[in-house]
Amino acid sequence: FTYTAPAATGKSTIIQELINQTEEDTDVGEMVVVPLLKSRSLRPSEQDSSGEAMHISESEFMQLKESQQLFQSWHYDGADYGTRLVDVVTALQEGKTVLLESVPEVMFNLNAAHTKKVTTIAIVPPEPRERNIIERIIQRGFHTPESLGNRLLYAMQLFAQLPIFDNVITNRQNRVSEAVDELRQQISTIQQEPEA
């Protein structure tokens, strides 16, 4: 399962809560978020201890990419992002349900490159208006004007691509639990479908 979201949509909160809930849920099995590698410094709100992201140097990232040790990778807003192939393979071999953060141009290509179906999930705010998106991003408090512009552009492009996603989860204000329940149900339904 691959997922993406505009900035300041509550993506990390939803995914972490989903992991917490499914630790004792035998219907969907054990889930794991494969760490996302980032070649940039930590923001004030981020911590590597969460397990969702790993911050490495640009040279370390390029070494992994050149040696073909990345399952996926992309460049965004002045930094490189990706996931290690070994982390994905290990989780799958252990029978875990794998969750990968990604971006549309990469996640849709994964389906063409791999024999197993890669489910695409978009997590979005309830109102895809520029003003609402900008307000959400500014509330985070760490974006430069250029970075703000990049995130607004990404959000608008993502909204335009929603019809081609397998699943779209709306995260309404103060109703995170509803988004988590919907995502959990959709994953459970897909897991029960027979393989083609």
Determine Rg (CA atoms, Å). Answer: 16 Å
The share of residues in extended strands comes to 15-25%
**Helix-strand topology string:** EHEEEHEEHEHEHHEH
Strands in their spatial order, largest beta sheet: 2-7-1-8-9
The largest pleated sheet is described as: 5 strands, parallel
Distance from N terminus to C terminus (CA atoms, Å) equals 17 Å
Query: What best-fitting shape do the alpha-carbon axes yield?
Result: globular
Per DSSP, the total helix count is 7
- Fraction in helix: 40-55%
How many strands? 9
Oligomer: single chain
Mean pLDDT: 83
Q: Uncertain segments of ≥5 residues (pLDDT<50)? A: none
| Sheet/helix structural class | alpha/beta
Could you give the topology of this structure?
Layout: E1 2-4, H1 11-22, E2 31-33, E3 36-38, E4 53-55, H2 58-66, E5 70-76, E6 79-84, H3 85-93, E7 97-101, H4 104-113, E8 120-124, H5 130-140, H6 145-161, E9 167-170, H7 176-192
Parallel strand pairs: 1-7, 1-8, 2-7, 3-4, 8-9
Antiparallel strand pairs: 3-6, 5-6
Helix pairs in contact: 1-7, 5-6
Provide a descriptive summary of the structure in words:
The protein is an alpha/beta fold and 196 residues long. 43% of the residues lie in helices and 20% in strands. The chain contains 7 helices and 9 strands. It has helices at residues 11-22, 58-66, 85-93, 104-113, 130-140, 145-161, 176-192; strands at 2-4, 31-33, 36-38, 53-55, 70-76, 79-84, 97-101, 120-124, 167-170. The strands form 2 sheets. It has a 5-stranded parallel β-sheet with strand order 2-7-1-8-9, sandwiched between helices. Strands 4-3-6-5 form a 4-stranded mixed β-sheet. The longest helix has 17 residues, at 145-161. The protein is globular. The mean pLDDT is 83.
